[in-house]
Amino acid sequence: MKKRDKLATVRRFYPRAITTADSVDLLFDLLEERFDLEPHQIMLADSICSDDVNTIEYPARAYEMLGPFKMGGLDGFPFTGLTGMVAFAGHVPDDGAVMIYYAPHIGVSKAGVVGELFRVGQSAPSSCCGAAKAALKRLEAGQIEPSRVTELDYQMNVLEQMLYEHKQRILDAPDRLREATEVVYEGIHERIGVLADETTYRCKYLILIGAILINGDHDMGSFTEPRHFVVRDLYAGTTMDVYDDYMSRLK
């Protein structure tokens, strides 16, 4: 399956998606041109789902950065919290940057089915994100109890409560799983912002990139649709929105 065909399939649902490999290449070009940053100066943290497919499909060039430090649990919510944020903030080079990439994920198979993919060695599709689909199923069945978060299944319960807070919005949507993924993205985006504001970074730049992460079948790879891209100059106390610049580089 050619790259253009893979993109055409994914862009039926996420029209601004690019391959994760291309996203890293474009990222490095922008950071070098505008901020004189090279990959070895950047401490990477990601807040993505702990699903093994995200490890298998992780873009190779991302390992040119330091890390990654893993913040995410089920569907990418930053369950490591403030302690996790503070921990890797102390690992960054003095003249460098912290970069946080955060995204819930969703599957899109080569057949164009949202919410599933074919994994390595499997002859039938499986769910992606399985946790989000399970939480949605419970929401549709009226099985989520308000404010119920247990120690035994804490992360799943948090996801359930996120969806429950936007119950009618999700149930009224033409594609409920995609809408649930948007709800999770908004929750992750808000939480990352709070954690970042509460953390002191001993470096020049803080880079925040929010997206939807799309996993294809095992022979498709992964894709990302950027939603948010800002660079905070911590020395100057300014924030630069570079989203439009980044997106303008897409082919």
List the helices and strands and how they pair.
Layout (H helix, E strand, L loop, with lengths): L2 H9 L6 E2 H16 L6 E6 L4 H5 L9 E5 L10 H9 L7 E6 L2 E3 L8 E2 L8 E2 L2 H11 L13 H11 L2 H5 L4 H22 L7 E11 L6 E12 L4 E4 L1 H6 L3
Parallel strand pairs: 2-3, 2-4, 4-8, 5-8
Antiparallel strand pairs: 1-9, 6-7, 8-9, 9-10
Helix pairs in contact: 5-6
General description of the model:
With 251 residues, the protein is an alpha/beta fold. The chain has one domain: Beta-carbonic Anhydrase, Chain A (3-Layer(aba) Sandwich), CATH 3.40.1050. Helix content is 37%, strand content 21%. The chain has 9 helices and 10 strands. The protein has helices at residues 3-11, 20-35, 52-56, 81-89, 130-140, 154-164, 167-171, 176-197, 243-248; strands at residues 18-19, 42-47, 66-70, 97-102, 105-107, 116-117, 126-127, 205-215, 222-233, 238-241. The strands form 2 sheets. Strands 1, 2, 3, 4, 5, 8, 9 and 10 form an 8-stranded mixed beta sheet that branches. Strand 8 (205-215) and strand 9 (222-233) form a beta hairpin. The longest helix is centred in the last third of the chain and has 22 residues, at 176-197.
